[in-house]
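Fig. S4 source data, part A: sequence.
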Amino acid sequence: MADKIHFHFLLPVWGEEFVKKFIDVSLPILFSLGNLKADERHKNNLFVIMTTYDDSKIIKSSHTYQQLKEIIKIKFILVDGLIDFKNNYLAMTNCYKIGMEQENVIPGKTFFIYLTPDGFYSEGTFDKCFSLAEEGYLVALVLGIRANATTMSALIKEKINTNSTTPIFSKSELIQHIINNISHLSEICNWFTRDGFLNDWPSNIYWIDKENAQLIAHCFHLHPLMIRSPSKKIFVKDTIDGDYLENLKYPLHRHYIFTNEFFGIDLTNPERKIDCQLSTPNIRSVIRFSLKHAYDCHRYYFRHRIELKSDPHRAISSEIEMQARYVSSKVLKNNNKVKLFYYRYFEPTVSLTIQNMMNIARKVKNSFKHT
């Protein structure tokens, strides 16, 4: 196995809500869309579940777990007492870190597939990841659209119960259902929304045409679906899609961004609160976010236009095309070194005390040493 590429599917899951989503919805549809299947070429793959002791017993007693056992080797890592579950994002990151640091990981040969308990992917996504790894890509990133968990789960369960064929959804059908059942957390990323845009953290921007079930997206943060295991330990301060990707220092031309053929779906609780202020879309807020909170890799991802259409033969309207092109180009034009320097060192400074001025001068001096 040491000389062959292989894949570790990493899944952090805990709590009644997410365990139920995983075993009742996400895992069955991954089977039905052909993303998890027995394949002689990938017999050394491993499905790693990071969970609690109590939740592991619930998972093992499910019918879908028995199906999974027939397809792939499974390893449980119990994280009781190792993870602080108060912050879901940090808990997910720490679970991934534990999964990536196991003794059976072979640097340069093991590829990680990052799963979520409330998410799944369009037909053939994993097969494409396998091919990309063999072609020499080190990272694969995919757009993850949030859909209403209540309505979308009901639709999926009905299809699974009444349809034994695979896949249960074509790509076109899946896009249509996503647009029809878009989550409120995706709606606040829609430049055309009437309910307020997320200017405070515009990491994803969508232009959604609901009437024709079409979407254009430019995103700083995409879901890192596949990453090759590095040859050394990489420091992770916040998230896998944040500083971990930047700290890997993998060449950007070996990052593959799925732009239209594949995508992910996250099932989001419609009662989940939005703890932020919404307002009219503001291009200056996006530029500020790009300069203050995005790494070089994120600005590279933002350059890629992602397009989803329920009808592949129907063109996106020229008005939406022009609007998306104008906003994205305006943001990219402002990503220059002078402005990056200003937003990192000057703009956050509230008061220019003598000490602050000395700190800024020192940063200026050090920056020139490395140019």
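Fig. S4 source data, part B ends here. The chain has two domains: 6-335, 338-369.
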